[in-house]
Fold this protein.
Amino acid sequence: MPVCTGQQGSGGVKTVFFDVDTQIDFLFPAGALYAPGAETILGRVAALNRFAASHGATIISTMDAHSEDDPEFRVCPHHCVVGTTGQQKPAVTLIENRVVAPNESCDRIAAQILLEKQTFDCFTNVNLARLLNALAAERHVVYGVVTEICVKLAAFGLLKTGKRVELVTDAVRALREDDGSRTLREFAAAGGVLTDAESVMGAATI
């Protein structure tokens, strides 16, 4: 069965936006695994998603989608259990033309792909590698939570494609500030590009 794909012409797309785990359990103080200050990036995340959609770019929004007894809960608190409020994305981060891509092959198409995962690493979703190959993007723009875990795994995984990867420093938040800062330094040292939301959205083309 074909993989989920986003908007693209016959020549593919230039940029794919990666909105990592911007879910209620991570973003707000009442959430099960709150990243301090994460609520302050919500406006920039929403703006980046709208910007991407308005320019015809694909948004891959990764989402934790855990069962009650997922193995991940052996190392971290329960969070983002399917069916709970905490697992949802705030409405402002959603694009009308969207589809859920569970961790099984699918063939649905949308501008925003809600890519479900059960572990920290978004590349464990069986669709992602084929999706990136189909989109054939020259550039990936990454933002979300949390910096030193799921954002890091997404960003470093994308660097392995050999394409340009940008991390939006004012649209990420960490569980621990020192760990987040170290991740940014490691990302830059590995060839990634540090940027901000204004620079991304100020570009003439994407």
Observations:
- The longest strand covers residues 164-173.
